[in-house]
Give the backbone structure.
Amino acid sequence: MSAASLTIRNDLSEIRRLSKWAGLYCEENGLQTSEHRLSLVLEELLSNVIAYGYDDDGEHEIHVELDLDDNTLTAVFDDGGRPFNPYEAQKPVMSGPLENRSVGGLGIHLILTIMDTVEYARIGDRNRTTMTMKTSS
């Protein structure tokens, strides 16, 4: 079992830092085959929180935790943005001409597709998204 945590800011420059941290975690735990999927999920969550989560331009802390137990990787994303349940997000239109499709929802769709489980809770004034992924290690 291996756990790690990272605190980042709601700033686009943090996407690179988050991705490097997740990559290092995967490398240290023999999860190279899961690295791309994990990084994509975390980057999508962070991008959404930065773009839509806060009512002000202030700096906010976002906490990310990773934990590997047996062959299950758990990622917890905790932010103080507006309440946002990914299961209540608008579903993306995946068929028909591109010009007829609405913008939005694709990132959340990817997260729900990539991860084996996604659970959301509003705890006090914070969003807590807990996701699991089976690994091949």
